Each structure stands twice: as structure tokens, then as C-alpha cells.
Amino acid sequence: MECDTDNDHRGDTFTGTILTSAILLQSRKAAAVVADDLKIDVYMAGGTFFKGQVFAVDFHYNIAIIKINSDVPLPTSTVRFIDNSVALDPGNRAGIARCQDSPISSNRFSLYPGTKVLALGRYFADSYDMMAAHGEFSYGHCDFDCEELLIASCQIKKNGMGGPLINSLGEVIGVNFYDASYTPFLPINIVYRCYRDLKKQW
């Protein structure tokens, strides 16, 4: 998501920020606790490998922030907030008001039922190839215990959990979670707000 320059060390180093699902870091012994024997391997496109460190976790929103260090600049994604004024259900006039975030409201992506989206992920086995599942945004109820989650019809496997949901322009508009029938996703508006708040705490 971000790549910052760290000039505190001898020579320039770069710190990359990766957002993913907190469930991937959860201990098998206790819910909402990060595993104490955690090892994070981050594979970039092209096979470049980094050791990752947990920076912050929010189990309510199921978001984890992973940091990696590099001696070269790292690629970053293009993020596009969802327009929170769009009416999703004409019968109920409910908008994405629950996706309220920062006061910046320009240049947002209008998301309507039927909008084409793509869920991305990585396979767990060598060579960690990309996984992509196409689908559409749809209005509906998500059974997960988070009212801000929206739904796409993409059919992903569990290795797509924590990956980005992108629009037809390649812009990240959400973070994917897993369900066998559809893809719940947290709008990037909420993810950004969570990321901003977690940075303040740490």
C-alpha cells in the first residue's frame, strides 16, 4: 500500500506496508490473538522474497499491517475510495453511509450492483502464482459479524483471503475475505481509516 524511505540507517532503505487479513496471523490456541511462533514470508511479483514483521492488527475489522524492508523502492497499489453516497438498495434507500471515512470526497469510484470487479490472491505453494476471480458487486446481506462488509460474486479459495478487490481500472477498492458462496469485502474507505488509526496507536 505504501513505500516510505528510511534515512535513519546507513544508505537509503525503504519500508513497504502491506495490508492483509488478520485471520492469517491468528493463533490456533486463542481467538483474536496473534500467533507467537509466527513467520511471515512475503513474495513479490517476479519472485523477490522478504521477511515480514507484524506492525499492527485489528481483529474486529480483520485487518493486519505487515512491514517489509528493502534496499530498493517497492511498487505500490493505486487505491480508490468508494463513493459513499451511492444508493445500493433502491427499495430501502440505504447507501454506503456506513463506509464514512475522511472528509476528502473527490474522485471516488461509483459502485453499483452489476459493477465488474476482480478478486486477487496468491497460491500458497511454490511458485506462489497469482489467483484472480472475476465477478460483480451485488447488494445483499453478509453473514459475517461486521456490518461494513459488502459483497461481490467472485468465487475465490481461502488463499484469496486478505487479497485486494480491484475495479476495471486496476484500482484497489476493497480487501477480500472468504465465504464459499461469495466474496465479502471491506471497502478500502474503512481499511484506510483502520490503517490510519492503527498507525497512531503504534
From TrEMBL:
Molecular function (Gene Ontology), one example: peptidase activity
Protein name in the entry: Protease Do-like 14-like
Claim: Hydrolase is one of the keywords in the record: yes
Pfam families cross-referenced by the UniProt entry: Trypsin_2
GO BP term, example: proteolysis
Keyword line: Hydrolase, Protease
SUPFAM superfamilies listed in its UniProt record: Trypsin-like serine proteases (SSF50494)
Keyword Nucleus: no
Species, as recorded: Trifolium medium
Source domain of life: Eukaryota
InterPro entries: Peptidase_S1_PA, Peptidase_S1_PA_chymotrypsin
